[in-house]
Design the sequence.
């Protein structure tokens, strides 16, 4: 089975979907331009040669235009995959996403649907406050939008394919440090979750989390980059006699809450790790669900490890302090024992 | 919203019940339908089930308190539902001034206090630890100060460690015996310190408990708050709810009534003969009427003529019952139980025998329902099988009289100058002299004796 990075797996998913279904097309800034990177992070590299500029559509630098075009195309029966370049730019599209994309199917009683995908790179990578945010929580709060976060190459391909085939708008949050540590756009400090990706067609369904590491003493829920930091913290904790169970929710909307609840019923402790600012995050939502539905199983307070409530700093020293790291996760877990 | 814990209307005669004990503590999780507290009615001690899932949030009555029927004695906080804000009127809602006028300020202040504040410092334990301790019947107080969790909180591990440390070690046979007898192994002292609990130790504890349950309870000053009585080995044995009820009721009976016992001796020869003839006549039936059944039948008959003995008395009002419901005292492993034969006055002998047999079986097997022990208007106690000739039974309050039946024994009687073998039966009746004077009591017993001696008069 071929091994590939998340960027390569996403590219393969797009290619397969575009071959499978003529309605699928990509749009975004600099995604197909000759001599370019294939979008900001190489995901669409080479696809314009294969499918032409009609289906790998370079847009003006206007996120509002991208959102409007994608929504309109989706309503008209196409299957757009929009490249958001930096997730932070989703704010430019916010009215169209929150008021149109998320609500058209509901308001039209199902007559219209908006089967579109927004691929949004996120995460702090020394680019300052406007190119570094983690934005999942903004969208988990809007009914009508699905939110997925692939942390492995296998999931990247499977989740993107599920997103393309879904009748609802899906935002796929991709972490900039997980695209791969090699290649023209590799990031400093990137981890490279190179994994086996089946060549055949497969889907990773939404709403199915996965236990990345089993353990009986504490449950850690983490997505994207935080998943890898949590796994590494779990390794260190195992040396201290604490077996952490690390859960990757894979999609936040819908959320596999049963997986989390059953794990907490087993371990009695819960730590949620997210890269976003602490207040009002999706971690808070999971904490509330567990406090509500598994309160009697808790043996310690629920803890969240998240970025402090400040914008992502530009200075690398500050950014290292800002983004939750292995040490913070370990200390938080230890505080529960 | 917190769910009210209401006192169910379990008594036909009383407005208040006595709270025997809470089976949960404040802060304990409770599940709808599981026993939450026990109350004592005038008839029995009953367990009352929790009305909802949640956590026992507050209690307003303590063990031993008299509690009003349909009154609220506590609250259950349903899981995941915030309580405090909903306990107060929502904005715009106005509490009527009448309600405010009725508020007793000291009561309100008491209710606002965390009940735990009154009993010492709050014990911090994780929900998981609380749940486990609750399941194992362990009081968190035992673990106070032993918490190893965050900020000294008691966590699951601490409860498990405590349970492991305090686990009584017993042989498998001893474990099985204790389980079958419903005995908590922690109450069994091993014969040698540090040794495992053996069969003999369990047997000794059970024997000690039995000895005490058969001891005369009326002389014991035990109230519901006294949970232990001395055992054979000097080891305390916790009183079962049934035993506690008996203790309370017998004390109540002796302290509040004015019992006088009247004794007589009846020649039961003809009744014995009648029974033989009846048995011959009816042949093989499922339940053969015993002498007790005959006496129940006779008593029901005689009570119709002496209705003032078929009554209940609450200290001010004598409630003479139209129907006759005779209770029968039954000696069981758990102590004295009094199942009631409903409408005994309407029953024939065979019906009485069937019903008596069924109720006694249920009493012995522990299957009696509370309603099968309630509503009695008169009680009959037969110690004849145990070799007692005469005794002074204690009135089963709020009833006013009880008939004691002694041993049927052979005796010789001189009739017309000849000694003949007769059957003699000791009978006694205890009446509450507050409402039944000596003469009517004597007339009642006289009529019973007359029907025992001349059963054919039954038809008059």
Sequence:
């Amino acid at each position: 089975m071929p091994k590939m990075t998340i960027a390569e797996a996403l590219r393969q998913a797009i290619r397969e979907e575009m071959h499978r279904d003529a309605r699928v097309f990509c749009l975004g800034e600099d995604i197909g331009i000759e001599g370019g990177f294939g979008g900001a992070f190489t995901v669409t590299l080479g696809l314009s040669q294969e499918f032409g500029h009609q289906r790998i559509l370079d847009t003006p630098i206007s996120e509002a235009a991208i959102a409007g075009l994608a929504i309109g195309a989706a309503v008209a029966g196409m299957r757009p995959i929009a490249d958001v370049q930096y997730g932070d730019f989703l704010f430019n599209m916010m009215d169209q996403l929150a008021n149109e994309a998320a609500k058209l199917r509901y308001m039209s009683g199902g007559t219209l649907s908006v089967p579109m995908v927004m691929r949004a790179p996120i995460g702090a990578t020394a680019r300052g406050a406007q190119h570094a945010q983690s934005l999942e929580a903004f969208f988990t709060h809007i009914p009508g939008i699905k939110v997925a976060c692939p942390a492995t190459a296998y999931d990247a391909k499977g989740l993107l394919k599920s997103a393309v085939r879904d009748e609802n708008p899906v935002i796929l949050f991709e972490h900039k440090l997980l695209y791969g540590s090699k290649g023209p756009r590799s990031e400093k400090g990137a981890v490279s979750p190179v994994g086996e990706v089946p060549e055949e067609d497969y889907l990773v369904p939404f709403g199915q989390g996965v236990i990345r590491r089993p353990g009986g003493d504490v449950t850690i829920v983490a997505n994207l980059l935080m998943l890898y930091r949590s796994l590494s913290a779990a390794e260190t904790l195992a040396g201290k006699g604490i077996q952490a169970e690390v859960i990757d929710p894979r999609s936040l909307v819908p959320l596999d809450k049963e997986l989390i609840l059953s794990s907490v019923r087993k371990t009695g402790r819960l730590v949620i790790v997210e890269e976003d600012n602490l207040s009002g995050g999706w971690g808070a939502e999971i904490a509330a669900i567990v406090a509500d539905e598994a309160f009697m199983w808790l043996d310690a307070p629920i803890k969240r490890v998240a970025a402090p409530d400040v914008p992502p700093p530009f200075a690398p020293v500050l950014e290292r302090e800002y983004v939750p790291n292995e040490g913070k996760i370990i200390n938080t877990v230890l505080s529960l024992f | 919203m917190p769910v009210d814990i209401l006192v169910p209307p379990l008594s036909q005669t009383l407005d208040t019940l006595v709270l025997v004990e809470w089976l949960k503590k404040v802060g304990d999780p409770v599940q709808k339908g599981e026993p939450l507290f026990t109350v004592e009615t005038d008839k029995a001690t009953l367990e009352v089930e929790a009305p909802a899932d949640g956590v026992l949030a507050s209690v307003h009555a303590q063990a031993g308190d008299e509690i009003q029927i349909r009154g609220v004695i506590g609250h259950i906080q349903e899981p995941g539902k915030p309580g405090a804000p909903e306990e107060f009127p929502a904005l715009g809602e106005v509490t009527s001034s009448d309600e405010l006028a009725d508020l007793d300020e000291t009561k309100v202040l008491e209710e606002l206090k965390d009940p735990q504040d009154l009993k010492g410092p709050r014990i911090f334990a994780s929900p998981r630890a609380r749940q486990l301790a609750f399941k194992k019947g362990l009081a968190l107080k035992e673990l106070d100060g032993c918490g190893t969790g965050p900020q000294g909180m008691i966590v699951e591990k601490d409860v498990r460690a405590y349970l492991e440390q305090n686990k009584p070690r017993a042989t498998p046979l001893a474990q099985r015996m204790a389980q079958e007898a419903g005995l908590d192994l922690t109450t069994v002292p091993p014969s040698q310190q540090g040794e495992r609990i053996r069969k003999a130790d369990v047997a000794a504890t059970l024997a000690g408990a039995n000895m005490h349950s058969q001891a005369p309870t009326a002389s014991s000053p035990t109230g519901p708050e006294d949970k232990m009585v001395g055992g054979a080995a000097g080891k305390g044995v916790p009183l079962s709810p049934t035993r506690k009820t008996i203790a309370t009721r017998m004390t109540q009976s002796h302290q509040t009534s004015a019992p006088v016992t009247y004794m007589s001796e009846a020649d039961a020869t003809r009744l014995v003969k009648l029974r033989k003839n009846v048995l011959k006549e009816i042949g093989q039936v499922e339940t053969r009427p015993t002498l007790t059944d005959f006496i129940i039948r006779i008593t029901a008959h005689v009570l119709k003529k002496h209705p003032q003995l078929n009554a209940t008395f609450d200290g001010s009002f004598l409630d003479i019952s139209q129907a006759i419901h005779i209770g029968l005292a039954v000696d069981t492993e758990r102590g004295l139980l009094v199942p009631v034969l409903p409408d005994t006055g309407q029953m024939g002998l065979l019906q009485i025998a069937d019903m008596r047999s069924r109720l006694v079986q249920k009493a012995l097997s522990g299957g009696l329902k509370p309603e099968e022990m309630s509503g009695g208007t008169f009680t009959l106690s037969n110690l004849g099988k145990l070799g007692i000739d005469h005794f002074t039974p204690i009135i089963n309050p709020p009833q006013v009289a009880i008939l004691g039946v002694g041993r049927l024994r052979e005796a010789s009687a001189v009739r017309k100058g000849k000694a003949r073998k007769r059957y003699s039966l000791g009978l006694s009746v205890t009446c509450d002299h507050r409402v039944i004077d000596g003469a009517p009591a004597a007339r009642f017993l006289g009529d019973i004796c007359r029907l025992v001696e001349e059963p054919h008069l039954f038809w008059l």
The first strand of chain A starts at residue 3 and ends at 4. The interface with chain B takes residues 268, 291-293, 295-301, 335-337 of chain A (CB under 8 Å). The mean pLDDT of chain A is 95. The CA atoms of residues 140 and 201 of chain A lie 28 Å apart.
